[in-house]
Design brief:
The complex is a heterodimer.
Chain A: H1 5-11, H2 17-32, E1 38-40, E2 44-46, H3 51-67, E3 76-78, H4 95-110, E4 135-136, H5 139-149, H6 158-167, E5 169-171, E6 185-189, H7 195-209, E7 214-217, H8 223-236, E8 243-244, E9 261-264, H9 266-276, E10 284-292, H10 294-304, E11 314-319, H11 321-326, H12 328-334, E12 340-342, E13 357-360, H13 363-373, E14 376-379, H14 382-387
Chain B: E1 2-4, E2 6-9, E3 12-19, H1 26-29, E4 49-52, H2 61-70, E5 77-80, H3 85-93, E6 98-100, E7 112-116, E8 121-124, E9 128-139, E10 142-147, E11 159-160, E12 162-165, H4 172-184, E13 193-194, E14 198-202, E15 205-215, E16 229-233, H5 235-239, H6 247-255
Parallel strand pairs in B: 3-4, 4-5, 5-6, 9-15
Antiparallel strand pairs in B: 1-8, 2-6, 3-7, 7-8, 9-10, 9-12, 10-11, 10-16, 13-15, 14-15
Classes of the chains: A alpha/beta, B alpha+beta.
């Protein structure tokens, strides 16, 4: 791997221990994946934020990073944490969990990370531009910015993305390079165009193509549809980038004439939905995986307006603090039914202490709820889910 | 002997090897507070040179490695066949020396190892390397195999190809020709094919074996005292014999595409 003289000096420890550790990690990962050198990044998005997932090892690691004086060099945002920073008591979070979770957030903040803890920073808090090299963790977000925006990132892990943010550089390989961004399979989609069907489409495709790069025909996803589809593909497979004919900015750049075509229609969609459903009776309905956008907040509020909540099923609406602040009228309507929580979601919060059956309209959540949260799952369209509580 | 790999996480360490046979997820696979291994045969990673093929599982595994270090229960070094992101990340952030591109099948529990992750080498202090040759001799379409006596010092009582040590100053090809002459009485000249050496572990020796293939149609083997029996067989028949480790790999590599 070729390092500049400046990079070599950092590796030799001339810029302090924090920077040295950061470049050691970026170089080690680059070496594994055959990077020829490093590339400057314009932003980072970090995972490894929930105390539930990173535990005491992660907390101690962050303590030591801060002690060594590490600071991020590029604008950086943080993934959802294990609770709403203000409303954690309504989420049945134990105080000792809350204390450690808040400590983690304050450690990231003292390294210069913007701690609006969201999995959709590209809707406002951290928006890459076309062609930017970035270092993003969070599988759904990195796939969205690669695909819908045309920024460039690999699937970074939490510590790797943090090291890149501290350094302002990441290893130049994989999806940073033109030749690795070409589609490798055509998906001929035949779906009804609803948000939920886009999620199921992503689910069906991820299962079939693993880590390949799909080129979609037959859909015209907006931001919300692309968001839920990207999330599902990254959870059921490990898709980090996709193209959509006539929609995504790099779709027309590559020759697709020789590619294999996979058809996904009603049968495949129904099969995907069936596999994700393990209960038809829920204690919690959680919407917002990935986090609800302004548009989704308006839509949900208009579905709920004038109606009354019935039954004792709880409902959570998960979004970012930024969106919650912007949508205060919608929030008033939604709060009649359940808390609009920010900074977190049903997957990274420790819901297993309170619930055992959860409803979601996100295939990503439906993939992770059984393993990470010991839940049985109802995976349905939002209108079906809302019937339970109104 | 010294085996060369690739540096992943810098540093030097010495310790006794603990080898796992399957890819390892530190999350769920190793308990951070004690260093206890929860998979395979169990054991404890603290202060060992931990050897396993590759990492797998949750990315949180990197933080489990950090937590091991915090609890002073971390391995002193890590050796993998193929490094991946989770273990490499954990090794770097926890300052655990790590190398990869090592054939972990050559390493054994209890081997004393000096790991130098600055240049990517592992030295097995009590293990020596011996260079040898192993030849497929094709006679009228069959392969000649030899039964080693129960009294043989290495690989007793199993079947092998015509094989032996390379003598000081001898080229591998010359050694192969000499061994065939000594063990079977067959005179061969140029090999049909040769391959890069393979490595085989036996007790405290790692054999570096140069594979050759010779053709000797019509020849009648006359074996010496080094072996007690010979047979002319095809590959399927050979698979039914108890063989010196690596023999089938050599045969299959040499006879591929033919």
């Amino acid at each position: 791997m070729e390092l500049t003289r400046e990079e070599q000096a950092i590796l030799d420890g001339e810029s302090g221990e924090g920077a040295q550790k950061a470049i050691e990690l970026v170089v080690a990962l680059g070496r594994i994946y055959g990077a020829e050198g490093l590339v400057d990044i314009t932003s980072a998005h970090l995972s490894g934020a929930s105390y539930k997932t990173i535990g005491d090892g992660g907390l101690q690691y962050l303590e030591d990073m801060v002690r060594s004086g590490s600071k991020v060099k590029v604008p950086s945002t943080l993934n959802p944490i294990g609770m709403d920073m203000k409303r954690w008591k309504e989420m049945h979070i134990p105080p000792e969990f809350a204390e450690r979770q808040l400590r983690i957030v304050s450690l990231y903040r003292s390294m210069g990370v913007k701690t609006t803890c969201s999995c959709t920073p590209y809707t406002g808090d951290n928006v890459p531009r076309f062609g930017d090299h970035v270092a993003w963790a969070e599988s759904s977000a990195l796939s969205f910015v690669n695909s819908y925006i045309g920024a460039r990132t690999n699937r970074e892990g939490g510590p790797g993305a943090l090291a890149a943010a501290i350094l302002g550089k990441t290893a130049n390989y994989g999806l940073h390079l033109d030749r690795n961004r070409a589609p490798t399979v055509i998906i001929e989609a035949d779906i009804d165009g609803s948000l939920f069907q886009h999620s199921l489409l992503g689910q069906a495709v991820g299962v079939r193509i693993g880590s390949r790069i799909p080129y979609y025909k037959g859909i015209r996803p907006g931001v919300e549809e692309a968001k839920t589809m990207a999330a599902a593909m990254a959870a059921s497979g490990s898709v980090a980038m996709f193209h959509v004919e006539g929609i995504t900015p790099e779709a027309e750049r590559y020759d697709i004439s020789e590619l294999e075509t996979v058809h996904i229609g009603r049968r495949e969609i129904e099969e995907a939905r069936e596999k994700l459903n393990s209960t038809d009776d829920v204690e919690l309905i959680a919407l917002g995986c990935p986090h609800l956008t302004d548009k989704e907040m308006h839509e949900i509020a208009s579905l709920l307006k004038g109606k009354k909540k019935k039954g004792d099923t709880e409902i959570w609406f998960c979004t970012s603090e930024t969106v919650r602040d912007r949508c205060s009228e919608d929030v008033k309507v939604m709060e009649q039914f359940g808390p609009v929580i920010a900074d977190t979601c049903m997957v990274v919060a420790p819901i297993e202490g309170t619930f055992s059956r959860t409803g979601t309209n996100s295939c990503k959540a439906a993939n992770y709820l059984p393993t990470l949260c010991s839940q049985r799952v109802m995976c349905q369209d939002i209108t079906e889910l809302l019937k339970v509580i109104q | 002997m010294i085996i060369e790999g690739r540096p992943i996480s810098k540093g030097k360490a010495e310790g006794s090897i603990l080898r796992l046979n399957e890819p390892l997820s530190f999350l769920g696979g190793v308990e951070a507070s004690s260093g206890d291994i929860k998979v395979e045969k169990g054991g404890n990673v603290a202060d060992r040179v931990l050897v396993f093929p590759s990492g797998k599982g949750s990315t949180v595994g990197s933080f489990v490695m950090y937590d091991l270090k915090v609890h002073s229960k971390a391995p002193v070094a890590i050796i993998n066949s193929t490094a991946e992101t989770i273990v490499a990340t954990g090794a770097v952030i926890s300052s655990i020396p790590m190398i990869d591109r090592i054939d972990v099948d050559l390493l054994r529990d209890g081997d004393r190892a000096i790991v130098n992750a600055d240049n990517g080498t592992v030295e097995l202090v009590d293990v020596k390397s011996v260079e040898s040759v192993s030849s497929v001799i094709l006679i009228d379409g069959k392969i000649l195999v030899l039964k080693r006596p129960a009294t043989a010092r290495s690989f007793p009582d199993v079947w092998s190809l015509c094989a032996g040590k390379i003598e000081y100053g001898e080229s591998p090809e010359a050694a192969a020709v000499r061994e065939i002459e000594e063990e079977t009485g067959i005179a061969v000249t140029r090999p049909l094919k040769d391959l890069l050496p393979i490595h085989v572990r036996e007790k405290n020796v790692i054999w570096k074996v140069y594979p050759f293939m010779f053709k000797a149609d019509g020849a009648v083997p006359v074996i010496n005292e080094e072996n007690e029996e010979f047979r002319l067989l095809d590959i399927e028949e050979i698979k039914g014999l108890e063989l010196v480790q690596g023999t089938l790999d050599v045969i299959e590599a040499l006879t591929a595409d033919d």
